[in-house]
Structures are given as C-alpha cells and as structure tokens.
C-alpha cells in the first residue's frame, strides 16, 4: 500500500489563490519588493487561469473528465480514486495499464459527478508531489466514444467536387464534425 502525503493539499483545496496571496503579503511585509511583485504577479495569473477555467465550464456541456499524468508506477486505481474522492464524488476512475504486462503506464482518468469538483481537483491536486513524481491534473479531451455520430467514408465522388460542396450536400443529414476529401496523388 502507498502512503500518500498530500503536504497540505486539503488546505490547498480551498484555493491556491489564498496560498499565493499569503506568500505575496509576507514578501511585501518583509520589504522584498522584487519578491512582492513576483508573488503578486503569480496571484494575478492564477486568478486569470481560474476565471478562464470557470468560463470554459460554463461554455461546455460536460467538463468533468480529468486526465492525471505522471502517476507513481506502483499506485493503484483504488488509491487514485481515494485521493480524488477527497475533493468530491467520483463517478469513475481508470488507471491505464499495459495490455500485456499489466504494468501501470503512469496515467489515468478521473470522472467527477460535477464540473465544479473537477475544477477544484485541478486547483488542489495539480502539481502534487507523490513519492518521486509530481502529478499533472487537467481536463481530458473528449474521447471518440463520447462524440455522438460515426465516421462515414464515401467513394465515387465526382472528381471536381469541392470540400464546400461535400459539406453542403451532407449537412442536411446532420451536424458534420469534420470532413475531408482524399485525392489520389497519381491521378
């Protein structure tokens, strides 16, 4: 079993902004103007990142799935789920393993019940040191399984058909996510 030392991650869960603000205040009180300015700049950057992430959450339907990179090799799926469950309800957790050896590939996915907990997990756990690794927690890109629809391959298109004509022809059947016409370089 792995012992996970969160090094105050529970305190950081409230907000990494407060830690940055405290560091800035301490530097300013000590009269270190360059350190004070640097800490204040870091605080502003963190606040901007948080606002951008919140805007992204409002603009998208489902921002609950996180990718967790740089996991320790011997960390189990249950331990990952336990760590992230300290932030909020976790719907699913998957540690990615090598298909032949069963060895951890050092990354996994955590899907929260709601987007606010996912955002809170990024703020609290991103950069957390576990054993000899510093984990990276960020929003995962949607998998192809979560995109409704299918790939449609069409042959026998007229040689002069343009990309715009193709899209116009098939857009009446539904939303086109991407389209491409492949040309034979020999003809």
UniProtKB/TrEMBL annotation:
**InterPro entries for this protein:** Elav_RRM1, Hud_Sxl_RNA, Nucleotide-bd_a/b_plait_sf, RBD_domain_sf, RRM_dom
Q: Show the coiled coil region(s).
A: none
Q: Which PROSITE patterns match?
A: RRM (PS50102)
Could you name the Gene Ontology cellular component terms for this entry? ribonucleoprotein complex
One example of the protein's molecular function in GO is:
RNA binding
The answer to whether the entry has keyword Disulfide bond is: no
Cite the entry's keywords alphabetically. Repeat, RNA-binding
Where composition is biased (Low complexity), the residues are: 8-27, 39-51
Pfam families in the record, alphabetically? RRM_1
Which residue ranges does the record annotate as region Disordered? Answer: 1-51
List each copy of the RRM domain by range: 64-142, 150-187
Q: Which family does it belong to?
A: Belongs to the RRM elav family.
Q: Which PANTHER family does its entry note?
A: EUKARYOTIC TRANSLATION INITIATION FACTOR 3 SUBUNIT G
Protein name per Swiss-Prot or TrEMBL: RRM domain-containing protein
């Amino acid at each position: 079993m792995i012992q996970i030392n969160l090094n105050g991650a529970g305190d950081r869960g409230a907000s990494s902004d407060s830690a940055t603000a405290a560091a800035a205040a301490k530097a300013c009180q000590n009269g270190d103007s360059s350190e004070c300015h640097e800490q204040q700049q870091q605080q502003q950057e963190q606040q901007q990142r948080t606002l951008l992430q919140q805007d992204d959450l409002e603009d998208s339907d489902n921002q609950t799935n996180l990718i967790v990179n740089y996991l320790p090799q011997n960390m189990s799926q249950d331990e990952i789920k336990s760590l992230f469950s300290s932030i909020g309800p976790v719907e699913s957790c998957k540690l990615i393993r090598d298909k032949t050896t069963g060895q951890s590939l050092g990354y996994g996915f955590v899907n929260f019940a709601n987007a606010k907990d996912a955002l809170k997990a990024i703020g609290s756990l991103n950069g957390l040191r576990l054993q000899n690794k510093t984990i990276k927690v960020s929003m995962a890109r949607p998998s192809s399984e979560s995109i409704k629809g299918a790939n449609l391959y069409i042959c026998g298109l007229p040689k002069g058909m343009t990309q715009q004509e193709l899209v116009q022809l098939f857009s009446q059947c539904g939303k086109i996510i991407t389209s491409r016409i492949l040309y034979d370089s020999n003809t």
